[in-house]
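Task: sequence design from structure.
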């Protein structure tokens, strides 16, 4: 393998029902930074059927080039045809880096493609950087239960591949000039019955409203500290969140205890968030939880234990009983609103 033949940062664009998933825009934003450091371009790879209308949106947020594979076998998502199509893209264009969102689809697709093109894959990355000397990709992810952060390299094989969790990166800014200059290339990929051994017969969608943690500007999260009165603790957190127009989150302890559903979980095994304001109520701050919220713009922590690790990352720390502190916070916020 001649590593010099592989150039460009490619992003797999996840679309469901002709709507691009938010993590794809986050990846394009990061890909722009990586491409600038590598002196190369960003290419978005769009797979599906009748998806050409999505190209404008991808161009607006930073893609220099868009490769479109349009085939009826690619709708809805199915592992085999998508793996075949993505492999065809890599074999033709020889990208140096390929990024996927660490979603259900990304986690299903990326390892299969990496095996087909015989390269490595770093899963669930929280940080991506370019080595200034080698120009290789440095992929950082939690390891050993989140107790250490491991930086992984892929020096001998290409492409360098990684999945990144939604919410870790920030969406790029709209660029009209780049949108007008984008190059769209259609790549025909033949998909025969020999390439597809399973077919999706029906998609049944569950009508369930989930909390949008990754898109929230304010998150109020609860932890084990509400155990003495769970119902009241959750009600106080909801009330506080409502004053800010925010949403309710929780630590793994709160979810494992059955106090909140899994879509509320913040942390290494939940969702990564970076809101403008993150309020942690009764959360000790284990490294697994901090990995999912420590990049928030402002962190406020309330905990009775003055040695709780959460105070290490908090901008403002309140050592006290959340059942006494939170009502005071709510009253103060309401008073401030009334005075204006």
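Answer:
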């Amino acid at each position: 393998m001649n590593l010099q033949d592989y150039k460009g940062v490619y992003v797999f664009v996840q679309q469901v029902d002709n709507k691009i998933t938010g993590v794809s825009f986050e990846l394009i934003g990061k890909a722009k930074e990586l491409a600038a450091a590598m002196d190369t371009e960003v290419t978005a790879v769009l797979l599906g059927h009748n998806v050409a209308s999505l190209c404008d949106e991808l161009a607006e947020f930073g893609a220099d080039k868009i490769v479109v594979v349009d085939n009826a076998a690619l709708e809805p998502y199915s592992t085999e045809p998508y793996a075949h199509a993505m492999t065809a893209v890599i074999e033709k264009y020889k990208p140096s880096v390929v990024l996927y969102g660490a979603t259900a689809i990304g986690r299903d697709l990326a390892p299969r493609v990496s095996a087909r093109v015989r390269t490595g894959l770093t899963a669930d990355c929280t940080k991506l950087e370019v080595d200034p000397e080698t120009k290789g990709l440095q992929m950082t992810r939690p390891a050993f239960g989140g107790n250490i952060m491991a930086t992984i390299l892929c020096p001998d094989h290409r492409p360098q591949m990684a999945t990144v969790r939604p919410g870790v990166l920030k969406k790029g800014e709209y660029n009209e000039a780049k949108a007008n200059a984008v190059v769209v290339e259609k790549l025909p990929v033949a998909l025969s019955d020999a390439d597809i051994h399973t077919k999706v017969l029906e998609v049944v969608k569950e009508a369930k409203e989930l909390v949008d943690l990754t898109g929230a500007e304010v998150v109020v999260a609860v932890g084990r500290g509400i155990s003495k009165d769970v119902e009241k603790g959750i009600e106080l957190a909801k009330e506080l969140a409502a004053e800010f127009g925010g949403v309710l989150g929780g630590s793994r302890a709160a979810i494992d205890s059955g106090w909140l559903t899994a879509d509320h979980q913040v942390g290494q095994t939940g969702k990564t968030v970076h809101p403008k304001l993150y309020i942690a109520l009764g959360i000790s701050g284990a490294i697994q939880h901090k990995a999912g919220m420590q990049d928030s713009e402002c962190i406020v922590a309330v905990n009775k234990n003055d040695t709780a690790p959460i105070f290490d990352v908090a901008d403002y720390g309140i050592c006290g009983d959340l059942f006494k502190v939170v009502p005071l916070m709510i009253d103060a916020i309401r008073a401030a609103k009334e005075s204006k």
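The mean pLDDT is 88.
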